[in-house]
C-alpha cells in the first residue's frame, strides 16, 4: 500500500507564545509536530505494518521542518518529503497548501492519505478535505478507527462525541482525531536510523507551480492573544446568600442571564 | 567551536523529556514513598533503546554517543532521582565495563541483553571496609582448575537484586611489590553461592535498588575474567571516570528540576501583596541556581565530548561530577527555601530532590575523592 501522511510543523501552544507586529514570534517558540498529525503518522505505520507498503511523510514548510520530518522517520515512516516554500512564498493559506499538495500528488498513486483533523495553530481543518476534492477521492474527517480489507475501508468517525460508522473504498483520504491511537515515542534505534532514511527536498518550481498559482485566497487582518485570564472570585457566607450573590453577578456584572 | 546539539541529540533529548514527563513524573512520589524499584518503567526504557544508547548496534545498542546518554540521564533525573540513578548505574557500571574490556564472546553473551534492555547489570566494588579506598578490597578469587572460586561481601550495590550479572572486583593475587592485584569478574547472579539482599532504609533515591551481596564459594569459569587480571584496577578507574559523567548529568537533572519548580512557584506565590519572584532576595537565589546549572551543563557536555572524541577526560569528568552534584544539592536546598513551609512537604517534591541529591555527593567517588582526583591531575 502507498501511504502518505500530511504533516505540519506548529508551535507548541503549551509553551509561551509572543505576538509582535501582527506575527507570532518564531524566536523562543517551541516547534512540534502538529499533535493530530502524530495520530496520522502512528496510524500510517500501523496500517503499513498490517498490510505492507510504504509510508511517506509530506510537509510544506521551511528548512527547520526537517526536524519534525526526522521525528516521523524515527517513529517508523519510510520516506519524507519537504516542500520548501521559504524562498518562494510570502504568505499562504489553506488554499495555497492544498494546491501545492495537489501538484505533488499529481503523479503519485496514493492508496491512503492521512492528515490531522486540524492543525492546532490555525485550526481550519480544511487542508485534508480540499486536497481530497482536488484529487477526486473520498474523504472522511475526524476518524477514531480505521479497518482496511482489500479495497474496502470501515471507519469510525467522531461526531461530537457520538460514533458514525462509514464504509468506503480506497484510494481514500482521512483526517485523524484523538482516540484513534496512542502515538509511540520514537525509539533510540529509530532516531539513529532516521538519519539514513531518504528526505527529498522540493520547491514549488519542481512541481511546475508559479507563485500566482498558489496565491492565498484569504488575508490575515490581525493576530492577537486571548485576553489574560482574570483572577476568580470565591463567594463566602451562607450558601443561600452565595446563591443569591452568584445569580446577581451573572445577571448584572457578566450579563449572561 | 560549536555549542549546538546535533539533530539526533535534540531528538533524543525531546523524546526522553516527553517520556519522563508522561510516564515517570506521575509515579515519582510513589516510587519514593514506597521505595519500590519501578521494574515496568525499566522495561519501557529498554524497549525505547535507552539502556543501550552508548553501545553499537551489533551488541544490541542504539549507536548513540556519550552526550546523548548524558542528555537522557539529565531528563530522567529531572523528574525522578531514583530512576535516574538506577538507569545511570545500569549503563555506566553494569554494562560499560563489558563493552570496554570484554572479549567478543563476553560482549555477545553478557552485553547484548543489557544493551537491549532485557536485563540489568550491576557493578560490585564497594565492601564494608573498602569504599573510597578500593585498594582495601577483601573479596578473593582463587583459581581452581578452570574456575575462579570467589569469597567475600559487597555492600551498597545498585540494582543487584534485579540484575542478571554483577561485575565483582576481587583480589586475585599479589604483584612483584607485594601489592594486591584486583581484578574484575563477571558473575551471573543465579550462580550457586551468590546471596543478594536489599534491606537498606535509605534517605534518598529510595526507589533505586541498593543491595548487599554475599559470595560463598562462588564458582565461575576463568573465561569470565573481564579484561586482564593485572589491569583490573586501571579498568575500573576508567569505568568510574565514565560513570562520573552520568552521575553529573543526574545531578544536573535534579538541579534543573529544582529550578523549574522554584521558578514557577515564585511566580505564583504572593506575600506582602507581591509575587515573591519580585523580591530581590528570591531573584538572586534563582539567578545563582540558573547560572550554576548552565555551568554544570557545559562541563558535563565537554567531558562527554572529550570521551566521544577519545581524548583524556578524567579531570573534566571529576570537575563535572563534583560541580554538578554540589550544584544539585544547593539548588534543591534553595528550591525548598523558596517554597517556604510548602517546600518541606513531600507533595511539592523539592524536599525529595534534596534527599536524592545528597547521594550524588557520595556515590561513584565522594566529593573529597573528586578533589583528590583533580589535585592528582594537577601534579600534587
Ligand atoms: C545509594 C548508593 C548506591 C551505591 N551504588 C554502588 C554501586 O552500584 N557499586 C559500588 O561498588 N558501590 C556503590 N555505592 C558505594 C559508594 O560508591 C560508596 O559509598 C562511596 O564510594 C564511599 O565509600 P564509603 O561509603 O565506604 O565511605 P568512606 O570511604 O568510608 O568515606 C567516609 C568519608 O571519608 C572521606 N574520605 C575517605 N578517604 C578519604 C581521603 N583519602 N581523603 C579525604 N577524605 C576521605 C570520604 O570522602 C567520606 O566523606 C553506593 C552507595 C550508595 C549510598
Ligand atoms: C513543620 C512546620 C511547622 C510549623 N509550625 C507552625 C506553627 O506552629 N505555627 C505557625 O503559625 N506556623 C507554623 N509553620 C509555618 C511557618 O512559620 C511558615 O511556613 C513560614 O513562616 C514561612 O511561610 P510560608 O511557608 O508561607 O512561606 P512564604 O512566606 O510564602 O515564603 C516563601 C519564600 O519567600 C520568601 N519571602 C517571603 N517574603 C519575602 C520578602 N518580603 N522578601 C524576601 N523574601 C521573602 C521567604 O523567605 C521564602 O523563601 C510551620 C511550618 C512547618 C513546615
TrEMBL record, chain A:
<keyword id="KW-0813">Transport</keyword>
<dbReference type="GO" id="GO:0005829">
    <property type="term" value="C:cytosol"/>
</dbReference>
<dbReference type="InterPro" id="IPR033948">
    <property type="entry name" value="ETF_beta_N"/>
</dbReference>
<dbReference type="InterPro" id="IPR014730">
    <property type="entry name" value="ETF_a/b_N"/>
</dbReference>
<dbReference type="Pfam" id="PF01012">
    <property type="entry name" value="ETF"/>
</dbReference>
<dbReference type="GO" id="GO:0009055">
    <property type="term" value="F:electron transfer activity"/>
</dbReference>
<dbReference type="InterPro" id="IPR012255">
    <property type="entry name" value="ETF_b"/>
</dbReference>
<dbReference type="InterPro" id="IPR014729">
    <property type="entry name" value="Rossmann-like_a/b/a_fold"/>
</dbReference>
<dbReference type="GO" id="GO:0046395">
    <property type="term" value="P:carboxylic acid catabolic process"/>
</dbReference>
<protein>
    <recommendedName>
        <fullName>Electron transfer flavoprotein subunit beta</fullName>
    </recommendedName>
</protein>
<comment type="similarity">
    <text>Belongs to the ETF beta-subunit/FixA family.</text>
</comment>
<keyword id="KW-0249">Electron transport</keyword>
<feature type="domain" description="Electron transfer flavoprotein alpha/beta-subunit N-terminal">
    <location>
        <begin position="21"/>
        <end position="211"/>
    </location>
</feature>
<comment type="function">
    <text>The electron transfer flavoprotein serves as a specific electron acceptor for other dehydrogenases. It transfers the electrons to the main respiratory chain via ETF-ubiquinone oxidoreductase (ETF dehydrogenase).</text>
</comment>
<comment type="subunit">
    <text>Heterodimer of an alpha and a beta subunit.</text>
</comment>
<dbReference type="InterPro" id="IPR000049">
    <property type="entry name" value="ET-Flavoprotein_bsu_CS"/>
</dbReference>
Automatic annotation (TrEMBL), chain B:
<dbReference type="Pfam" id="PF02770">
    <property type="entry name" value="Acyl-CoA_dh_M"/>
</dbReference>
<dbReference type="InterPro" id="IPR036250">
    <property type="entry name" value="AcylCo_DH-like_C"/>
</dbReference>
<dbReference type="GO" id="GO:0050660">
    <property type="term" value="F:flavin adenine dinucleotide binding"/>
</dbReference>
<dbReference type="InterPro" id="IPR009075">
    <property type="entry name" value="AcylCo_DH/oxidase_C"/>
</dbReference>
<feature type="domain" description="Acyl-CoA oxidase/dehydrogenase middle">
    <location>
        <begin position="122"/>
        <end position="218"/>
    </location>
</feature>
<dbReference type="InterPro" id="IPR006091">
    <property type="entry name" value="Acyl-CoA_Oxase/DH_mid-dom"/>
</dbReference>
<dbReference type="InterPro" id="IPR046373">
    <property type="entry name" value="Acyl-CoA_Oxase/DH_mid-dom_sf"/>
</dbReference>
<keyword id="KW-0274">FAD</keyword>
<keyword id="KW-0560">Oxidoreductase</keyword>
<feature type="domain" description="Acyl-CoA dehydrogenase/oxidase N-terminal">
    <location>
        <begin position="6"/>
        <end position="118"/>
    </location>
</feature>
<dbReference type="InterPro" id="IPR013786">
    <property type="entry name" value="AcylCoA_DH/ox_N"/>
</dbReference>
<dbReference type="InterPro" id="IPR006089">
    <property type="entry name" value="Acyl-CoA_DH_CS"/>
</dbReference>
<protein>
    <submittedName>
        <fullName>Acyl-CoA dehydrogenase</fullName>
    </submittedName>
</protein>
<comment type="similarity">
    <text>Belongs to the acyl-CoA dehydrogenase family.</text>
</comment>
<dbReference type="InterPro" id="IPR037069">
    <property type="entry name" value="AcylCoA_DH/ox_N_sf"/>
</dbReference>
<dbReference type="Pfam" id="PF02771">
    <property type="entry name" value="Acyl-CoA_dh_N"/>
</dbReference>
<keyword id="KW-0285">Flavoprotein</keyword>
<feature type="domain" description="Acyl-CoA dehydrogenase/oxidase C-terminal">
    <location>
        <begin position="231"/>
        <end position="378"/>
    </location>
</feature>
<dbReference type="InterPro" id="IPR009100">
    <property type="entry name" value="AcylCoA_DH/oxidase_NM_dom_sf"/>
</dbReference>
<dbReference type="Pfam" id="PF00441">
    <property type="entry name" value="Acyl-CoA_dh_1"/>
</dbReference>
<dbReference type="GO" id="GO:0003995">
    <property type="term" value="F:acyl-CoA dehydrogenase activity"/>
</dbReference>
Amino acid at each position: 500500500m502507498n501511504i502518505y501522511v500530511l504533516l505540519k510543523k506548529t508551535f507548541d501552544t503549551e509553551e509561551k507564545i509572543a505576538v509582535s507586529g501582527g506575527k507570532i514570534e518564531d524566536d523562543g517558540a517551541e516547534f512540534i509536530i502538529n499533535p493530530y498529525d502524530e495520530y496520522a503518522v502512528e496510524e500510517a505505520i500501523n496500517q503499513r505494518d498490517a498490510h505492507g507498503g510504504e509510508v511517506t511523510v509530506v510537509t510544506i514548510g521551511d528548512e527547520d521542518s526537517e526536524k519534525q520530518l526526522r521525528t516521523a522517520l524515527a517513529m517508523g515512516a519510510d520516506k519524507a518529503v519537504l516542500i520548501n516554500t521559504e524562498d518562494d512564498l510570502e504568505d499562504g493559506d489553506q488554499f495555497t497548501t492544498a494546491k501545492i499538495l495537489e501538484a505533488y500528488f499529481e503523479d503519485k498513486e496514493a492508496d491512503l492519505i492521512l492528515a490531522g483533523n486540524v492543525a492546532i495553530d490555525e485550526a481550519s481543518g480544511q487542508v485534508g478535505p480540499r486536497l481530497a476534492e482536488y484529487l477526486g477521492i473520498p474523504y472522511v474527517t475526524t476518524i477514531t478507527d480505521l479497518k482496511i480489507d482489500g479495497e474496502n475501508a470501515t471507519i469510525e468517525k467522531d461526531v461530537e462525541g457520538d460514533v458514525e460508522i462509514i464504509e468506503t473504498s480506497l484510494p481514500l483520504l482521512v483526517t485523524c482525531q484523538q482516540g484513534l491511537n496512542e502515538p509511540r515515542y520514537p525509539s533510540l534505534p529509530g532516531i539513529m536510523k532516521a538519519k539514513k532514511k531518504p528526505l527529498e527536498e522540493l520547491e514549488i518550481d519542481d512541481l511546475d507551480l508559479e507563485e500566482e498559482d498558489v496565491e492565498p485566497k484569504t488575508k490575515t487582518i490581525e493576530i492577537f492573544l486571548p485576553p489574560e485570564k482574570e483572577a476568580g472570585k470565591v463567594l463566602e457566607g451562607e450558601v443561600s446568600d452565595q446563591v443569591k450573590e452568584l445569580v446577581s453577578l451573572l445577571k448584572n456584572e457578566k450579563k449572561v442571564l | 567551536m560549536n555549542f549546538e546539539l546535533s539533530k539526533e541529540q535534540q531528538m533524543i533529548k525531546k523524546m526522553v523529556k516527553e517520556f519522563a514527563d508522561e510516564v515517570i513524573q506521575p509515579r515519582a512520589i510513589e516510587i519514593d514513598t514506597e521505595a519500590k524499584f519501578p521494574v515496568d518503567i525499566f522495561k519501557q526504557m529498554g524497549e525505547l533503546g535507552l539502556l543501550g544508547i552508548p553501545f553499537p548496534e551489533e551488541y544490541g545498542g542504539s549507536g548513540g554517543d556519550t552526550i546523548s546518554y548524558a542528555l537522557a540521564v539529565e531528563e530522567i533525573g529531572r523528574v525522578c532521582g531514583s530512576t535516574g540513578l538506577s538507569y545511570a548505574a545500569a549503563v555506566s557500571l553494569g554494562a560499560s565495563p563489558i563493552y570496554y574490556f570484554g572479549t567478543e564472546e563476553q560482549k555477545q553473551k553478557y552485553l547484548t541483553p543489557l544493551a537491549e534492555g532485557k536485563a540489568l547489570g550491576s557493578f560490585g566494588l564497594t565492601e564494608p571496609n573498602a569504599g573510597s579506598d578500593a585498594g582495601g578490597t577483601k573479596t578473593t578469587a582463587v583459581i581452581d582448575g578452570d574456575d575462579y572460586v570467589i569469597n567475600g561481601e559487597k555492600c551498597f550495590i545498585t540494582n543487584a537484586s534485579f540484575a542478571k550479572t554483577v561485575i565483582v572486583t576481587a583480589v586475585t593475587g599479589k604483584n612483584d611489590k607485594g601489592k594486591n592485584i584486583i581484578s574484575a569478574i563477571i558473575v551471573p547472579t543465579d550462580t550457586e553461592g551468590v546471596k543478594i539482599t536489599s534491606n537498606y532504609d535509605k534517605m534518598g533515591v529510595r526507589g533505586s535498588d541498593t543491595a548487599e551481596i554475599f559470595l560463598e564459594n562462588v564458582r565461575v569459569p576463568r573465561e569470565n575474567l573481564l579484561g586482564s587480571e593485572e589491569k583490573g584496577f586501571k579498568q575500573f578507574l576508567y569505568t568510574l571516570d565514565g560513570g562520573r559523567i552520568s552521575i553529573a548529568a543526574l545531578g544536573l537533572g535534579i538541579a534543573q528540576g529544582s529550578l523549574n519548580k522554584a521558578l514557577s512557584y515564585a511566580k505564583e506565590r504572593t506575600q506582602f501583596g507581591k509575587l515573591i519572584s519580585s523580591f530581590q532576595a528570591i531573584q538572586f537565589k534563582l539567578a545563582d541556581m540558573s547560572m550554576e546549572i548552565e555551568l554544570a551543563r557545559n562541563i558535563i557536555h565537554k567531558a562527554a565530548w572529550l570521551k566521544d572524541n577519545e581524548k583524556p577526560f578524567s579531570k573534566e569528568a571529576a570537575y563535572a561530577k563534583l560541580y554538578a552534584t554540589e550544584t544539585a544539592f544547593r539548588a534543591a536546598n534553595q528550591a525548598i527555601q523558596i517554597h517556604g513551609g510548602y517546600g518541606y512537604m513531600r507533595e511539592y517534591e523539592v524536599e525529595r530532590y534534596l534527599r536524592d541529591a545528597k547521594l550524588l555527593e557520595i556515590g561513584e567517588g565522594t566529593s573529597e575523592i573528586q578533589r583528590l582526583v583533580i589535585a592528582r591531575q594537577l601534579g600534587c
